[in-house]
Write a structure and sequence with these properties.
By secondary structure, the protein is mainly beta. The chain has a domain of 99 residues: Immunoglobulin-like, CATH 2.60.40. The chain is built from 1 helix and 8 strands, in the order H-E-E-E-E-E-E-E-E. The strands form 2 sheets. Strands 1-3-6-5 form a 4-stranded antiparallel beta sheet, with no helix packed on it. Strands 2-8-7-4 form a 4-stranded mixed beta sheet, with no helix packed on it. A hairpin with a 6-residue loop joins strand 7 and strand 8.
């Protein structure tokens, strides 16, 4: 009798766990962020050049990804991200504009906040060097 009762309890537990598994979404990953690169290298660019670059975001999850905020590490680095939901498998672009008025090294970051389950805050970087025209002193222009 005891054996039958134990077997019945184990059977009910097994059925309960199977029913629970079936209520989870397929994949169960939620929205997940992936970027085409972690660093954009401008290389050496002339002072006053176009300092714009693009990072491509892909939602590799199974629910809509929402970019809630994109923030540069200083006023000279201005990111622009679309706040419309990115459907599973879809892509969106984050455009970053760096102010190239000041000559010298570029080493800035952009923090991307989202509802991603794998990385709710993702940081990407831009780097390079802004070259002053011949004869101009380094470090001229607007402060960083």
């Amino acid at each position: 009798m005891k054996k039958t009762l134990i077997a019945a309890c184990l059977g009910l537990l097994a059925l309960g766990s199977i029913a629970q598994e079936n209520t989870r979404p397929v994949g169960g990953s939620g929205p997940m962020i992936q970027l085409d690169k972690d660093v954009h290298d401008y290389g050496t660019i002339p002072q006053g050049a176009n300092g714009e670059c693009t990072f491509t975001v892909t939602n590799i999850g199974d629910a809509p990804l929402i970019l809630t905020n994109c923030k540069g590490s200083c006023g000279c680095t201005v990111p622009k991200c679309d706040t419309e939901p990115i459907l599973p498998g879809a892509k969106s672009a984050i455009t970053v504009r760096y102010d190239t008025k000041r000559a010298g090294a570029i080493n800035k970051s952009v923090t991307i906040s989202s509802n991603a389950t794998n990385e709710p805050e993702k940081t990407v970087r831009i780097k390079g060097h802004v070259e002053a025209p011949p004869g101009a002193p380094a470090g001229t222009g607007t402060p960083q």
